[in-house]
């Protein structure tokens, strides 16, 4: 009986030790994975130089070079810029206003605010948008400095798109079509003059002449849009809220101590649950065996006592 009890206790102790080591290895693997994820996030963030200046509640003016993009622009190509940012929701309004103020500071000839939107959705989620029209010579510099302003507000760039449209080819097509329509208009005007005495035929030429003139006006409008695309580059900033991450240096000693104590308590409870879940089935099995043994032990004792009496009789 003693050997059975000691063996059961030794088995339980072995299971507890094995569970503790398993939990320790599991925590180490989780920590390694978390460190790898943190390193990956840091590598995907903006360059360190862009985040060295702490956020002070206002966005510094963007410094735009006059001709930094002049050598990079392709002749006859109009670009559309689209940037998407993610940053703490309480800082979106300040960043958006800083971008708009930087545009207005350049003057209407170089930058104009074309649209501005700010909204607070369900659960307090903040989103915003800013659309501007820029001098093509400063478009890329304005976008780069806009990204820097976001990183200074503890935000990051999550997507960007720069799409070029060959407006030179489009302008050539418009010019060719316009010349063809003008020639057709001159022909119809001559036919209309010669058919004055035939009312039905004159009416047909007049209707076609009106249609061709409308088509010419549309082609001229397309040409103006192509020309404007080369002189005003559209750029859009969209802002979405992200959870603000508290910096370690901003925490007080008491707050850090309470956080560490809470994490330790939760970790201890988790360890206890894992150990109990690993050892409970075996402990229950040993307990059932002990109860069975305690139940049959009196019966076996009575049999041992009655056996000599039967033998003497």
From TrEMBL:
Coiled-coil regions, chain positions: 171-222
Segments traversing the membrane: 272-296
Keywords: Coiled coil, Membrane, Transmembrane, Transmembrane helix
InterPro entries named in the record: DUF4349
Record protein name field: DUF4349 domain-containing protein
Every DUF4349 domain range: 95-293
Provenance organism: Sphingomonas sanxanigenens DSM 19645 = NX02
One Pfam family, short name: DUF4349
Lineage, broadest ranks: Bacteria, Pseudomonadati, Pseudomonadota, Alphaproteobacteria, Sphingomonadales
Record bears the keyword Transmembrane: yes
Source taxon at top rank: Bacteria
């Amino acid at each position: 009986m003693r050997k059975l009890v000691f063996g059961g206790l030794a088995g339980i102790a072995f299971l507890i030790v094995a569970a503790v080591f398993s939990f320790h290895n599991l925590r180490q693997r989780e920590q390694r994975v978390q460190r790898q994820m943190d390193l990956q996030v840091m590598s995907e963030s903006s360059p360190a130089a862009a985040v060295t200046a702490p956020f002070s509640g206002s966005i510094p003016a963007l410094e735009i070079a006059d001709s930094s993009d002049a050598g990079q622009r392709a002749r006859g190509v109009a670009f559309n810029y689209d940037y998407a940012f993610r940053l703490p929701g309480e800082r979106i309004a300040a960043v958006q206003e800083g971008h708009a103020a930087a545009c207005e500071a350049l003057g209407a000839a170089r930058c104009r605010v074309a649209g501005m939107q700010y909204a607070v959705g369900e659960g307090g989620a903040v989103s915003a948008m800013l659309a501007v029209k820029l001098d093509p010579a400063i478009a890329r510099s304005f976008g780069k400095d806009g990204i820097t302003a976001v990183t200074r507000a503890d935000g990051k760039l999550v997507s960007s798109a720069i799409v070029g449209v060959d407006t030179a080819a489009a302008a050539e097509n418009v010019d060719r079509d316009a010349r063809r329509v003008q020639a057709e208009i001159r022909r119809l005007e001559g036919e209309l003059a010669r058919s004055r005495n035939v009312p039905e035929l004159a009416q047909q030429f007049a209707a076609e002449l009106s249609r061709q003139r409308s088509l010419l006006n549309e082609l001229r409008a397309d040409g103006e849009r192509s020309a404007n695309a080369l002189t005003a580059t559209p750029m859009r900033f969209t802002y979405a809220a992200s959870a603000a991450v508290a910096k370690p240096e901003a925490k007080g000693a008491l707050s850090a101590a309470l956080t560490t104590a809470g994490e330790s308590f939760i970790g201890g409870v988790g360890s206890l649950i894992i150990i109990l879940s690993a050892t409970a089935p075996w402990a229950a099995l040993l307990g059932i065996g002990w109860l069975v043994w305690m139940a049959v032990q009196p019966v076996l004792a009575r049999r041992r006592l009655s056996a000599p009496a039967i033998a003497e009789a």
